[in-house]
Amino acid sequence: MTRDAAIPDALIEALRDAQHVCVLTGAGVSAESGVPTFRDAQQGLWAEYDPHKLATPEGFLSDPSLTWEWYRWRRQLVSEVEPNPGHVALAKFERLVPKLTLVTQNVDGLHQRAGSTSVIEFHGNIFVDRCFAEGSIVEDSGSKELPTCPRCGSLARPGVVWFGEAIPGDAMDSAFAETAACDIFLSIGTSSQVYPAAGLVEIARSAGAVTAEINVEPTEDASIFDYVLAGRSGVILPKLLDSLSV
Ligand code: OAD
Question: Which of 12, 211, 174 is nearest to 93 (CA)?
Fold first, then answer.
């Protein structure tokens, strides 16, 4: 059974004094809602499915039906789950500190459904369709056929960032700028293996921010963080919020 770490007093004090908190979240934050992560050994999506087929432009073009089937399955899954106490605590946290920027690698929209407003979707959103050729947003027709762009006739694709693709420019610019200006940086529920998101902690450190990782198990490069809290985000984040509220 997972044991959830206690929160160090010094971290609580730093959070109380913080003017600008930056939070980076990954799939682990949605795990307690029932959304599978990517890299967990047994249940991670990439243990069962091939990312080269399902999360690259080349894979999409070689079999768009397979890719769409998988993303429609994931859309269905995500639309049937609810935000968990970790999402809810982050949304409340936003209202407690002078400024909070939430950068998420998650495409599931659960932070927004929990009430977070300042969310930077670093890897896009699974519920958006985009024209494969032009990148513009395409209205979902709800049809079971392969969707196409009404303007140019190209195939439409899920509006998420795939391997080998650039992060949307506005998300990249604002995530980097906000991270460089924060005084506390929290990395929560991410394996920190996918760049450029995994590099944000370096930017925060260079800016002199206090850094902390919250993860069920410390990640490979956890020693870079000032604080490493091992445990579930759905337990640790509400505890953190309680400690700040007293
Ligand atoms: P990963 O699946 O790589 O990592 C999830 C992390 O969450 C792991 O380090 C787990 O230990 C941790 N974890 C699991 N349950 C948790 C819980 N209840 N509380 C706290 N931590 C928990 O997911 P990401 O780091 O988000 O990109 O992956 C980054 C990107 O790789 C994703 O956005 C996706 C994927 O390929 C694309 O699809 C482009």
Answer: 12
Q: Do residue 145 and residue 96 come from a single domain?
A: no
Range of the domain at 5: 1-34+83-123+167-246
CATH (domain of 51): 3.30.1600.10
User: Is residue 115 classed exposed, middle or buried when 0-12, 13-18 and 19+ CB atoms within 10 A define those classes?
Assistant: middle
- For residues 88 and 200, membership in a common domain is answered with yes
Nearest C-alpha to atom 33 of ligand 1 is from which residue?
A: 105
Ligand 1 contacts CB of residue 37 (under 6 A): yes
Mean pLDDT of the chain: 95
pTM attached to this predicted model: 0.96
65 and 178 fall within a common domain: no
Query: Is 121 near ligand 1, meaning CB less than 6 Å away?
Result: no
User: Are 103 and 209 in the same domain?
Assistant: yes
Q: Are residues 243 and 192 in the same domain?
A: yes
Alpha-carbon gap, residue 121 to 104, rounded angstroms: 5
Q: Is the peptide bond before 196 cis (omega within 30 degrees of 0)?
A: yes
94 and 17, same structural domain?
yes
Q: 156 in helix, strand or coil?
A: strand
What confidence tens digit (pLDDT) does each residue in 85-110 have? 999 999 999 999 999 999 999 999 99
Active site residue 87: no
- Whether 26 is in the pocket of ligand 1, judged by its Cβ within 6 Å, is yes
Looking at residue 197, its pLDDT comes to: 98
- The active-site residue out of 20, 52, 87, 123 is 123
- For 58-86, the pLDDT digits (tens) are 999 999 999 999 999 999 999 999 999 99
> Quick check: CB of 71 below 6 Å from ligand 1?
no
